[in-house]
Amino acid sequence: MKTKLLHILFLFGLLLPFAGNALDAGISYAIYATPEKPYLEINIEIAAASATFRRVDSTHLQAGVETLILIKQGEKVMNYEKYILYSPVFESPQNLLDVKRFSLPNGDYTLEISFQDIHDPENKDSFTTPLKVAISGNIHLSEVQLLRGFRADNTDNPFTKNGYYLEPLPFNFYDRNAVRLAFYAEIYHSDRHITEGNYMVRYFIEEEKGNGIKNLISVGSQKKKPAPIDAVLVQMDISKLESGNYSLTVELRNPANELLMSHIVSFQRSNPFLHVTENEITEEVLSKQFVENLDEEKLRYGLRAISAMAVGEESEVLKNILQGKELKPMRYYLFRHFVREDANNPNRRTRNLCEVAAAVHEKSRAASGMVLKRTAAAPSFRFGRPDDFIHVEDDPGAPPYEIWVYYNFPKTNQKNVKFLFYNPSLAGEDFIMLHSTARGEINNPRWERTLYSRAAGEEYEGDNYHDATTMQRNTARNARTYFEDF
Fold first, then answer.
1. In the sheet that 213-224 helps form, which strands lie side by side, from edge to edge?
2. Does residue 181 sit in the same domain as residue 214?
3. Domain for residue 252, yes or no?
4. What residue numbers bound the domain in which 34 lies?
5. Chain segment 464-477, per-residue pLDDT in tens
6. Same domain, 38 and 124
7. Which one, 133, 208, 237, 376, has least CB within 10 Å?
8. pLDDT(4) > 50
């Protein structure tokens, strides 16, 4: 295995080389088997930042790397392939990815791979490792392949195996956006070794503390029925893993819990915002985040959308920021909020909020000519864009109110969830939540009485004034009709 960190690419001019002139190639490999024979699978990833890109037209870029794979026994070449690995043709540089498979009989080999940038012959990299192929008739666990992720796929894509597209992770590096570790392995001939009962696949993540000290982080297991061949495809939550070095161990254990075979693979984790302190959110950090691209209007949208979640001193701080004109504290507050909400990907949460705010703003303007309300934005940010929306200003006896409808509510998996907001102060942005059918949110059976509190007492539904929860229907009083039928 080989692990390297990715770099940042800055694009200048027609020829776009990495400043260090050193190709950064990540390699992962594993020995698998078909029913007939074993084979070597090699996954290659070359960091876009390390390759030289040329323009293929006015808007598109492409890089190419000459790749030579040698499989040797001593000085004898047993198998090889030489080809040019091209990047995708896109408007911005993309990593170069490839997978190669070679049939190999059991034996001891040396795997050598060399890379040379076709646009810069001095830009090179190489990889060499001993290789042992030893799949016998006994129970066997293949090497463990780390993945960025996987999805169902039955196409003939070279990265597809057993009905899944497996996105490899040759650098063995999970960046701060990663929330799950995934891995793949295969098991052979368990039916020849396990004659009664099921065997177990056990897997666990440990933090490498140094000097051989390890800290157990997470454990999982699967029971398997003996079979000629089986696959293990697992994902584990790593959202709370701190930055550092870790190892993943995968074990096979018999019905008596005796260890039969195991493999260990090391990986690195970067999670810089997991426990970030306020003084670590510097101008340099902010300059690389999504909030740096937001203008004043979008910043104010975002801050107003999250203002309903600010309480105590935070509410006062946010109020003072919104009353000012400085953009730096706006960016700082917004980014800090989303770091606390989602340390793995605060930029994604910020983008989602801005997209929702823009969509809600347009829908609200089309419906009523009014701008986005701050508290109405909060549920749409938290739960995604609403499926429907109504804004009412002309209901006699009631202040302006809005109803938000979610046909499939993601937080609680409820159907047809509704929120009702109203503006009792009649201030332009002072909408507050009055009632919702979502579990865990404000549920106010007397919401109609509150909404129409200016109406006369005899207009409540029923004879008991104190216990009444609804209002008498009339042609002008439409909130319940809207809420129930909308």
1. 173-174, 259-269, 244-253, 199-210, 213-224
2. yes
3. yes
4. 1-135
5. 444 455 555 555 67
6. yes
7. 237
8. no
